[in-house]
Amino acid sequence: MYRIPSTLAAGALAALLVAQPALAYTGAAGTGARAATVTVGLPLTVTGTNAAFASSAKTSDPPVAVTATVTNRNSFHRWAHIVTATFGTSSKSGCGAGDYQINGAIQSVQRAVNGNGTLAVSGISVSLLTAGCKGSTVTLTYAAS
User: Fold this and answer.
1) pLDDT tens by residue, 65-116
2) What's the confidence (pLDDT) of residue 81?
3) Which CATH class name applies to 45-144?
4) Average pLDDT over residues 131-136
5) Which of 3, 20, 84, 129 has the greatest count of CB atoms below 10 A from its CB?
6) Which residue ranges make up each domain of the chain?
7) Distance between CA atoms of residues 140 and 133, nearest Å
8) pLDDT class for 3, splitting at 50, 70, 90?
9) Is the dihedral of CA 112, 118, 123, 127 positive or negative?
10) pLDDT in tens, 25-77
11) Among candidates 126, 41, 143, which has minimal Cα distance to 90?
12) Which residues 6+ apart lie within 8 Å of 39 measured at CB?
């Protein structure tokens, strides 16, 4: 009976999980050589909507919801663990990150994004903290890991 040392098996499993897609096989006997190309692939990209505040907005108004979209440009699925949203810019001069609050800035997704597919992520919103920034549009920067 042929036994594979546990450290070798664990190392092979870790290599498969990191370098997807990949195919590995073992044989008990025989000779020959095989070669295969392993593609790491393209990273996931994330885009999202902007938060627009009306010129009559108040700091007590409900937050403005935004939606992030995770895109997989590969022909195989990729796993999205976390989507983050951070302040990018404000259309109103003098308004910065401290004038807004990003609610749900870190969203745990834990889902596979199909090959050449997208995944909508909700739960992110922006609150107005400074009345002088009403009538602005906030652009967020999104990332996925």
Assistant:
1) 999 999 999 999 999 999 999 999 999 999 999 999 999 999 999 999 999 9
2) 97
3) mainly beta
4) 98
5) 84
6) 45-144
7) 16
8) low
9) positive
10) 555 666 667 776 666 899 999 999 999 999 999 999 999 999 999 999 999 99
11) 126
12) 21
* d(C-alpha 142, C-alpha 117), whole Å: 17
CB atoms under 10 Å from CB of 96, counted, come to 12
Q: Which amino acid is at 116?
A: N
- Looking up tokens 């889902």 gives 111
Q: How far is CA 116 from CA 65, 78, 86, 99, 141, in A?
A: 26, 10, 26, 37, 22
How is residue 17 written in tokens? 């999980």
Q: Token pair for residue 2?
A: 């042929």
| This prediction's pTM | 0.73
d(CA 58, CA 60): 5
CA dist 73 and 76 (Å) reads 9
Query: Hunting for tokens 């796993």 — which residue is that?
Result: 79
For 86, the token pair is: 């951070």
Q: Is the pLDDT of residue 144 over 90?
A: yes
